[in-house]
Design a protein that fits this description.
The complex is a heterodimer. Chain A is mainly α. Chain A is built from three helices and no strands. By secondary structure, chain B is mainly α. Chain B folds into two domains: 30 residues; 114 residues. In chain B, helix 2 packs antiparallel against helix 5. Classes of the chains: A mainly alpha, B mainly alpha.
Chain lengths: 110, 154
Amino acid sequence: MAGIDVSELVTNMLNAAKDVLGRKWPEAKDYAETAFAQIGEAISFIETQRALGKMPDEKARLHLEIQKNTSKTVMLTLEGLGIVAVEAAINAALKVIKDTVNTALGFVLI
Amino acid sequence: MIGQGSRLKRYIFASGTLTLILILTLAGCASIRLISEYDRETDVAVTAFQKKMERFLISLERNIGKEKAEYKNNAGFYDGIKVDLSAIRVRVAAIPKNEITIQQIDLLIENVNNLERIHKLGMTHEDIPPLRTAFNESCTAILKLELAKKRRRH
């Protein structure tokens, strides 16, 4: 049985994610590379252990599930960091117009 | 007499101004919050979870092949850590706009359940490094977001 080419697997995962993420790809790239490299390592580990007869089917599924959940956790952080950045941008914009608006309206609106 | 075009312009200007005022009012005046505030309790509890898990994995690593590492002698660890995670889950769920952290804690709970199933099937030396990496990565990701909430400007 031919071995799995993990590097090719990771490249394919990255390409698929790149297509889905579109313009968000540059900010997600580093996180995705780390997350998919770890899924690739998990698959490589499972393959090695199975070849040695040390990895029953259920255990293999559980190892992969753990790695998938870890990758989701990492990507959720990326999503959160994006929200923090958007929030900071809106607040910076509000701060810039604060004095002008308050002065013009004659009361503290912002 | 005011022409129709002029009336339309005034209407657009007025409605635009009203919209702006409404947005600013809804924005909570000074600043807006799209994601929860930093929570020190979450930070401390997730750090404590990571230490507890690492201590457990080190002990397992040292004792694999011995009776001490068998699942039946470690069931208490799983009971304890599930209680810890449940407390963290309740805490993060009580904080407004904290959905991302809630999802992350749910994934951590799932992974502890998966770890327990692996342990029941029989843990080997080789199982431990990827498990350690996964739990460390998860905790790092959760803490990274929590610390980003802390660092933001008010």
